[in-house]
C-alpha cells in the first residue's frame, strides 16, 4: 500500500472545492440546509415545546404510544429528538453522498488520468476521507444549530449542551464510517452512483431478510446478523452517552473490512 499524506490532503481539498465552489454542489447544500431548517423548526422545536408544556410523564406516555418509549432519554430534549432523527436519516444521507467516490471518474475515463499523477490507494482512501470529512461538517452544522436552539430556550444549559453535542458527534462519526466504507467498495466495483445506491439498499434489505429467514431454522446463524450494515443501530439508538466499546467495535470492524475489500478491487480492477 502506497499512501502520500500530501496527495491525500490535495484530494480532500479538491473535493471540498468541488462541493463549495460548483453550482451543483452549492445547490445540494442549499437543499440540505432547507430540509434541515424544516426539521429543526418543526420536529425538534415542537417536541421540546411539547415536553415542556405537558411534563415529562405525559410526554413519556406519548413516546411510548409512538413506539419510542424504549429509547433512553438524553438529558436535553432537543438533542433527544435530534438523536432519534439522526440515527435514521444520516445513514441514508451517507449512502447518497458517498455513492460516487470513484465510479463516475472510471466511466468518464478521468480515473486513468488521475492515476498518472498519484496512486490508486491515494485516490481510494482520499475520496473516502473526503466524504467522511464532508459528513463531519454536515453533522457539526446540524449540531451547532440544535445547540443554538437549546441555548435560546435556556442559556444555563450551555455546559451540558456542549457535552451532549460532542458525545453525539463522536457517536455519529462511528456509526457512519461503515456506510462510507461500503459505498467506497461499491463505487470501486460499479460504474455509476445510481448502481452503487441500488446495490447498497439491496445488500442491506435482502441480506437481512435471508439471514433472518435462515436463523429461524438454525438459531446459530443469528451471528451472521453482525455482518449486516446497521444491524447495531437499534441498540446504539438506546444509548444516552458515548457508545460503549462493545457496540463501537462492530462498525469499526465493518469499516476496516469494507475498506480492505474495496481497496483490493480498486487496485486489481482495470481502468
Give an overview in words.
It is a single chain. About 3% of the residues have low confidence. This protein has 11 helices and no strands. With 271 residues, the chain is mainly alpha-helical.
Measured distance between first and last alpha carbons: 18 Å
Count of helical stretches? 11
Q: Report the C-alpha radius of gyration, rounded.
A: 20 Å
The number of strands is: 0
Secondary-structure class: mainly alpha
- Helicity range of the residues? over 70%
Integer count of domains: 1
**Basic shape:** globular
Unreliable sequence segments? 65-71
Give the amount of beta strand, in percent.
under 5%
Mean pLDDT: 82
Biggest sheet details? none
Oligomer state of the chains in this structure: single chain
Order of helices and strands: HHHHHHHHHHH
Summarize the structure.
The chain is mainly α. The protein has helices at 5-21, 23-54, 56-65, 77-97, 103-108, 110-114, 120-153, 158-189, 193-217, 233-237, 245-268. It is globular.
Write the layout of secondary structure elements.
Layout lengths: L4 H17 L1 H32 L1 H10 L11 H21 L5 H6 L1 H5 L5 H34 L4 H32 L3 H25 L15 H5 L7 H24 L3
Helix pairs in contact: 1-2, 1-7, 2-3, 2-4, 2-7, 4-7, 4-8, 7-8, 7-11, 8-9, 8-11
Keywords:
271 residues, mainly alpha, 11 helices, 0% strand, globular
